[in-house]
Amino acid sequence: MLIELENNLPEKVSVDLYAKLLDLGFRLTEVKTQSSSFLIGHGEGRDIRSVGLLPGVKNVYELSEPNKLVSSKWRLDPTVIDLGEGVLIGNGNFGMMAGPCSIEGEKQIEHTVEHLIKNNVRIMRGGVFKPRSSPYSFRGLGLEGLKMFFAACQANGIKIITEVMQIEQVESMYKYVDIFQVGARNSQNFNLLEVLGRVDKPVMLKRGLSGTIEELLASAEYVFSSGNEKILLCERGIRTYENAYRNTLDLNAVPILKERSHLPVIVDPSHGIGIRKHVERMALAGVMAGADGLIVEVHENPEKALSDGQQSLNFDEAERLYQNLRILNTMNLKSEEEIVF
Ligand code: PEP
Ligand code: MN
Fold first, then answer.
1. Whole-number pLDDT of residue 159
2. Rounded CA gap, 220 and 126, in Å?
3. What contacts 241, CB < 8 A, 6 or more positions away?
4. What are the boundaries of each domain within the chain?
5. Is 271 in the pocket of ligand 1 (CB under 6 A)?
6. Which CATH superfamily includes the segment(s) 81-330?
7. In which residue ranges of the chain is pLDDT below 70?
């Protein structure tokens, strides 16, 4: 049972309510986010009406699913992530994130920012802490790289999404980041998720390498129940028996996640297929599947990229993608009657 509480409850009301619910036989988990307060009541077969009438209770929802706070069954309006300066994601606001796999240096950042401004893209991706399968691969420029990244983006109203790998990095990264990305390999790092639940900046959770949809929602539930409602879900491909491409981009996940959760869903076609010449098609397919945004790897010179060059679009290819996305998004807005075949 999900119990939504009135805002700013007097101490006495909330103590009495808690005691009453314990009396009724519930085991309770308290959740306090930046904007709301909840109690999650664990225990079967209680009478929901008796709870709804208790002082301090705004709404009660009987939810059978394990992941309650992220469920669309009680929060009917889709969540909108507001990054400031008019950059919104969700509920009809398309979030386009583009940039290199890794931040490599000042010139690269500058050129990418110019490319994004030219194309009206407001969010830049770029890793500075890189999870690499081999310890001998380029592991990122670290916090110094992030400061460079921030300086160039802040001056131009571009928002930053970058991966956080460890709890210890959260505090030092905080002021330079607009969205914390949790990578596929950390998708079930529950301690990291709890710490990100205590920050007030959005978190984008990538699906685990072999993660199920339920597990991705459970990871989001960790963040929400620790206090942070600003969550984006990302389908980035899963590992299957198929080895003709890097991962299997599971676009089925998009409508299913959107049906089950109120959180925005982002598609990452770059890691999803891992083959540059097919990224654009899969990006467009992601939009048709209902994605609220895309995260795409773009590099000024993919052949020379220090990581994931094989799946990075160059600036011209990226421009074509943005143009096609605009056409597709406009089409999506039209009613079916208007489109004649
Ligand atoms: C990335 O975005 O560059 C990345 C490492 O992604 P993932 O965690 O999905 O592999
Ligand atoms: Mn990458």
1. 98
2. 22
3. none
4. 2-61, 81-330
5. yes
6. Aldolase class I (3.20.20.70)
7. 44-45, 333-340
Q: What is the pLDDT of residue 281?
A: 98
**How far does CA 10 lie from the centroid of its chain?**
34
CA of 101 to the centre of ligand 2 (A): 4
Q: Please report the pLDDT score of residue 234 as a whole number.
A: 99
Ligand lying closest to the C-alpha of residue 184: 1
Q: Does domain 2-61 have CATH number 3.40.50?
A: no
Buried b (16+ CB within 10 A) or exposed e, 143-168: eebbebbbebbeeeebbbbbbbbeee
> Same CATH fold, 81-330 and 2-61?
no
Q: Residue 48's pLDDT is what?
A: 79
Does residue 55 sit in helix, strand or coil? coil
The structure tokens listed for 131 are: 């999870």
Average pLDDT, the chain: 95
Distance CA 113, CA 94 (A): 19
Instruction: Kindly report the protein residue whose alpha carbon is nearest to atom 10 of ligand 1.
Output: 184
Å from CA of 127 to ligand 2 middle: 8
Q: What pLDDT shows up at residue 337?
A: 67
pLDDT of residue 43: 77
